[in-house]
Amino acid sequence: MIGCHLGRNFQVTVAGASYQEGLTAVVQGHTPGLLLTEQEIYGDLLLRKPGADELSSPRKEPDLPVIYSGLNAADTIEGAGNANRTNGTPLTILIPNLDRHFIHIKQYQDTNRTPRPGHASYASFVKYGPDDDAIGAGIFSGRYTSTIVAAGYVAKKILKRCGIEVFSYVKELASVRCPDVDPDKILAYTNAYKRMRCDFDPFYQEVYVKNRITMDMRFLEKAAILAQIEQEIEAIRDKAPKIDAAQIKDKYRVHHIVNCPDIDAAQAMTDACNRISATGDSAGGIVEVMVTGAPAGLGEPVFSKLDAELGRMLGLGAVKGVEVGAGFAVKDMTGYQSNDQMRAENGRVIFDSNNAGGITGGLATGQPIVVRLAVKPTPTIDKPQHTIDKYTLENRQLAAITRRDPTIVARIWPVAENYTAMVILDHLIAHYGSQALRAQSL
Questions:
Q1: For the chain, what are the domain ranges?
Q2: pLDDT given for residue 56 in this prediction
Q3: Which of 85, 158, 167, 224 sits 20 to 30 Å CA-CA off 245?
Q4: Which of 18-22, 202-206, 240-244 has maximum average pLDDT?
Q5: pLDDT tens track for 95-115
Q6: What is the reported pLDDT for 15?
């Protein structure tokens, strides 16, 4: 498998699968001296993990990360204060699978002869043969996106130190669309939503707030605690604070389920999705990612254009379309309507619109970068569907008996956010390098 690597300057390699021992992200090209903890990485992982609310799969994976390599295990000299800071060597983040039981494996074994329509199960069987990892869809499961969230968090933290913010939200779900909102308000809303999710996540509170796992512990000590947690998953979940939608709205000013910066729209999305799920079906939608603070000129021409690199998010499972700025709407515009006219104001360039989504010629213009992803409905549904026996090619009928998500949209926005951060940082390293060389040659 040669497709599990991304980046030239900031590089990420992922491995593992849905029902293997776990998943792994190996990160290279990050800066040394970055203070990093498992708790903060988990703060992003909990946003995409299953079993968190009524719009996600009931699988109970806590997605607790372990930083295995790449950090100083202690101060390099007494009093240096650089313990748990990156040291420039490859950073390895492990995400063990803890909710992996035979009853669930058996469900896949019983249905793996009949590929699920909309999944990669038929094509991967043709490519890899009988040894294809078909338990839980293997690396084609949405579970692998936890590695992108973990690695992308590192990129996002570095970008923030450079004055660049990357954030994402649900723009549309089950045909309910969020009205346009100012980027600064979206960022503030998303940050408040993340705080709320940490405060109400039972594993965040039990594992990190109570210091059951700390950065001072060795790997084997953490592994022993994870083995305990595997036996306590239900008990820990039962400790989750009761979610009161009205109280959350009053305290955090966010919706209790969907990260959409218009609370009324978020509730309408939830209701519409639940109506569809009640029939055994699933819903799709749109995720929007925004980047602010990116310097003008960021990107490379021809084969490495910034928008083309962001278009690689088509590689995310369930994403069937990526558009930048006005995207496909430009087909209904004239050139005059599409062009983002500009003017100078107090020594700054001001644009009258942002149909280009902050990118022209593959280079950032300095405006907010705007990317939208079309996310298909979850292919695993509880409705009879036509399929085949992949060994005998006989016609069969299939209805899902495995755990399923009513929608993927409400969980995929942190994946898009952190994937975008990886792309932006990869280009920023090259941009800073070329600008420094240019300055030296003047």
A1: 5-441
A2: 60
A3: 167
A4: 202-206
A5: 998 877 666 767 777 777 888
A6: 93
Q: Which of 116-125, 156-165, 232-241 has the lowest mean pLDDT?
A: 116-125
pLDDT on residue 254: 97
Distance of CA 224 to the CA centre of its chain: 28
Predicted TM-score (pTM) of the model is 0.93
Task: Please state the φ and ψ torsions of residue 109, each to the nearest 5 degrees.
Answer: -60, -35
User: What is the dihedral angle through the alpha carbons of 58, 59, 60, 64, rounded to the nearest 10 degrees?
Assistant: -130
pLDDT digits (tens, 9 = 90+) for 402-435: 567 889 999 999 999 999 999 999 999 999 998 9
- Mean pLDDT for the stretch of residues 199-224: 96
Tokens 């955090």 belong to: 252
Q: What is the pLDDT of residue 195?
A: 97
**pLDDT of the residue at 58:** 62
Could you tell me if 145 and 47 are in contact, meaning their C-beta atoms sit under 8 angstroms apart?
no
Q: What is the 3-state secondary structure (H, E, C) of the chain?
A: CCCCEECCCCEEEEEECCCCCEEEEEEECCCCCCECCHHHHHHHHCCCCCCCCCCCCCCCCCCCCEEEECECCCCCCCCCCCCCEECCCCEEEEEECCCCCHHHHHHHHHHCCCCCCCCCHHHHHHHHHHHCCCHHHHHHCHHHHHHHHHHHHHHHHHHHHCCCEEEEEEEEECCEECCCCCHHHHHHHHHHHHHHHHHHCHHHHHHHHCCCCCCCCCHHHHHHHHHHHHHHHHHHHHCCCCCCHHHHHHHHCCCCCCCCCCHHHHHHHHHHHHHHHCCCCCECEEEEEEEECCCCCCCCCHHHCHHHHHHHHHHCCCEEEEEECCHHHHHHCCHHHHCCCEEEECCEEEECCCCCCCEECCEECCCCEEEEEEECCCCCCCCCEEEECCCCCCEEEECCCCCCCCECHHHHHHHHHHHHHHHHHHHHHHHHHHHHHHHHHC
Nearest to 42 by CA among 289, 208, 166: 208
What are the tens digits of pLDDT across the range 369-403? 999 999 999 888 888 889 999 889 999 988 765 56
Give the angle subtended at the CA of 46 by the CAs of 43 and 52, to the nearest 5°: 145
